[in-house]
């Protein structure tokens, strides 16, 4: 059995002390391992979140990542917020210091079966749905990863008969490729279990995995689309023969990748009816057996989640749950009652007969497209933030066709406005009016002034939040606060 004691005697540095880094450093310290934490932020900037590490009297180096830390480091755990290309990380690679992450350590140590979900969009909704279905099926279920809490702090409570559902981002999955540590000499490291450590640093893919879709995203962090796709592929590249891959037949990239995995793939589609997969029959969501015999899940009108993209998420979730042994009754109960996750097309309030929706989790133009497609009502759109170097042409076209007013804020306001106006020359009938706001507060005030009965006021930024907020959660909660103060 693999045990965290394989890290005994090693000097560990945890790089990045956000939620995941703090949880990992606490776990390692509580298991009597030698740990130092470091973050580019100062103690004042991190604030009360540091309290658990301070209570453990953990050595902390804050406000910088001095290279001197590497002089006495045998292993680096890198948090997702720290780019792989960061100088400190690359210097560690040059010195042949191995790299790992909290999520990979968790997967390696976890005694329970793991189902993992990634994709450019829909991860959080799908992961939440799978977790709820497995709970409804009577399984003790742990949901985490890139959603909610880091799971490493719970691992000592997880039993083999439990089930784990993880959302994994491209930043986390980069470290699931062994190539990252190909120059490391494990035999030279001070570990009591070289074989166990080699396993931790090797290739890994969870046994039941889903890639929901792949579209351009996070190109402000990944050097290219090729690097981004390669990170995603770590979720499925290294499964054993019994592994199962859930893939989207309607997405060009996932269809091309899935075709390389033959009978291991279970397809979901809104446009086709794949054997042993999931799809639509006369507006009914169904599971298919190998002979295309359908098993009814729900009619589209019985689902409370808006939009075709959420129908696809539901099909993927049900395929995942079926592979883990959940009965169809558990799926039916969850998918017809689930109203969504916080910050994803979340109805905040009806105010003066206009509906205000929080879609702050929309951090790419592609997610903005999905949000706009979810409404038939006149839309007042609030968009902007920090650009991720993604294409805006299609989003600009749909904005002109679906919105009455657009209120732009944040660093990318000028960029988005330029795309809208450039596209307007090809859509001369478009009546969309573009407004500017200094910040989200001013944008909400202006939206309330513009809104008429029957309108939808939609915060779907299409951008990252880091120009004004800590993350999309803080942005969404501020939006809800402002709306509820109207």
Structure report:
The mean pLDDT is 93. Helix 6 (123-136) crosses helix 11 (308-323) and helix 14 (393-402) packs across helix 15 (413-424). Helix content is 33%, strand content 20%. The protein has three domains: 4-97, 3-Layer(aba) Sandwich (Rossmann fold), CATH 3.40.50; 104-335, UDP-N-acetylmuramoyl-L-alanine:D-glutamate ligase (3-Layer(aba) Sandwich), CATH 3.40.1190.10; 346-485, Protein-Tyrosine Phosphatase, Chain A (Alpha-Beta Complex). The strands form four sheets. It has a six-stranded parallel sheet with strand order 7-8-6-9-10-11, with helices on both faces. A six-stranded mixed sheet has the order 15-16-20-17-18-19, with helices on both faces. A five-stranded parallel sheet has the order 3-2-1-4-5. The protein has 486 residues and is α/β, with parallel strands linked by helices. The termini are far apart.
Summarize the structure.
The chain is α/β, with parallel strands linked by helices and 486 residues long. The chain has helices at 19-30, 43-46, 51-55, 87-94, 102-109, 123-136, 170-173, 194-201, 225-233, 252-258, 308-323, 328-335, 365-373, 393-402, 413-424, 440-450, 472-485; strands spanning 11-15, 34-39, 60-62, 75-78, 99-100, 114-118, 141-145, 163-167, 208-211, 244-248, 265-268, 278-281, 284-288, 294-299, 346-351, 354-358, 379-384, 403-409, 433-436, 456-459.
